[in-house]
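ok so i was messing around last nite and threw this chain in just to see what happens. nothing serious, just curious
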Amino acid sequence: MITAQRKTIGHRAPGLTALLLGGLISGLFAETTPSLPPIALGMSTALTGPAADLGLNMRSGVLAALDEVNRSGGIHGHRVELISLDDGYEPTRTAPNMRQLIDQSQVLAVIGNVGTPTAIVAIPIANETKTPFVGAFTGAGVLRRTPPDRYVINFRASYAEETAAMVDGLINSAHFKPEEVAFFTQRDAYGDSGFAGGIAALQRYGLTNENAVAHVRYERNTVAVEKALAELLNHEPQPKAIIMVGAYAPCAAFIRLAQENGLSPLFLNVSFVGPASLAHALGAAGEGVIVTQVVPHFDSELPLVRQYRAAQHANDSHAEFSFGSLEGYISAHLLCRALQLSGGEPDRERLTDALLHLGKFDLGLGDELLLSPEEHQASHRVWPTILRAGHYVPFEWKEWEKPATPST
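result:
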């Protein structure tokens, strides 16, 4: 864990200079001034427990980005440091962590928190204390209100967008009927968010009765999936595809148990599942499992992804590349872009204004991003991947399309 000195840049007078109207050239940082206090950022995440891989990967990417910035001179001479606290993916631990980070450590912003149930308790604290809550590792609707919460700023596509992309592929390319799609979800706000997005997408394709679609659930932080599978085996018609909104261990257990009981539909998972852990847990049973991602493949030759790999290696030569650490790197890169724009003495309000006035910008991901007072989610892109021989490879939904049968 990187700790910050007690004297940090926190909440000062609001304001924003005309610098926001100009562009920011990545890598142009002032020389480090040792006498200046560090800029402290906070993170409450899962560093232990069943979701630990998600938190550890996210933190790894954030640290790689901050190390890159600090090696380039920091932000207007200030080093940027991270205080990360473990909440084990349990909301009851998130609230005191947020209070400690904001009230005691005086962090300038909170970045990269992992999970929907934890975000539900973190967001009110961020709003109350007017602390930017940036790049959370969750696609839930609670972070995407209309109108948006001023201090909640997202990078990633939503779970609704991920499940909608799945439904589009299943209906348009695989030519399934809406009733042939089922859902396996975590019994909490995370699972509910993904399910709601998927149902809304199916309704656009003519689904009139939500109850016609099988929906089975399991309890968070458990692998008790037997009841869910039993319910699904008794459902008619048997599903041809199962959209899964859960953590890797229960999803892997469900897939294995389903296959052992003669159920072999297409299995599709949202990004939060923990792709690497899922692949490891499934082994050969994972062949053909689909996972949607909200970042490009970490082997991509896109400019920012190449920069991520170099930063990860420089910060930790033993770190493995992953979708999660790439997301953490991108979120921290975005935040540091706004920090540079917010001036030499940033405070929470200046930083929030800087984030929300980035407008259209390009980080080197192959797509233009947008943040504004009305748009608090920078990216809406979903990248599908599929497990082949234990590795995730890019996948296009049109690969399901069957060639036309020649006439005789």
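not much to say yet. Residues 52-71 form the longest helix (20 residues).
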